[in-house]
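Hello,

Our lab assistant flagged a job as stuck in the queue for most of the afternoon. It eventually completed. Since we weren't sure the result was trustworthy after the delay, we are filing this so someone can double-check. Below is the sequence as submitted and the structure that was eventually returned. Let us know if re-running is recommended.
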Amino acid sequence: MSLFDSTYEKWLSDQVEGETNRRRRELLHQGLGHGTVAFLRAIWFPVFGNLDHLYPEYEVRDFNNGYRYLDLAYMPGSAKGCIEIHGFRSHARNIEASRFKDLCMKQALLVLDDWLFLPVAYLSIRDDPGVCKQLVLSFAGKLLSTDAPAKLSWAEAETIRFARRIMRPFDSCELATHLRRTERHTRSILLELIRKKHLVVASGKQRYRTFQLAGVEQPRQLSDQ
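-- returned structure --
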C-alpha cells in the first residue's frame, strides 16, 4: 500500500467515525468521487504530504434553508476554503441550464459567506498537474496568511503573512520589494523573526540567503509507489 493510500484510508475513516450528521455520514460511506480522489492523490498530497484540515462532502446551508455539499472544505483555524472538482461531462457546452444555474448559485452563496472558492477541472488535474500544484499552494497560503502572531511590529507581522502566502523559501530582496524597505532594514527584520523563532534559515551558512516559516514543511514530491 502506498503512503497516499494508507493516509487516505485513515483520513476518510476518521472523518466517518467523527461525524454525527447522518446526511454527511451516509455520503462519506458511499466514498468520494473519482475526481476528488484524483485531486488528492496527484495534487494535494504531493504538495503538502498530508490531508490535514480537509473535510470531504462538507455540509453548508443555503438561503432557502437547504443543504449543499462541498467536494472539499479546507479549514485551517478559522479560515474557510472550498475546493470543487469539475468533471468535463458536467461542464461541457451542452450542460443543462438548471444545472448551470445551480452551480453559479452555489459559488455565489459561498463567496457571500466569506468562503475562498477554488474550482479545479478534472482535465487540469490530468493534463496540467504542475499548474494545479501552484494553484493549491497559493490557495492554502492565502488562507493561512490572514492572522499573524501578536506582539509583532507591522513589518514583522507582514513578513509572516508574506511567508505564509508564498509557501516557499524567499530571500531578503523579495521581501524588501514587498515591504518597500531597504534590503538592510529587511535583513534586520528577518534576523529578529529568526530570534523570535517565527522564521528559520532555509539556505546559507556564513551568510543567510533564503528564509522560510518555522515548523512548515516545504512542498515536495512524494513517492507513490
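-- support follow-up --
The delay was a queue issue, not a problem with the job. The result is valid. Residues 3-144 form one domain. The longest strand covers residues 54-61.
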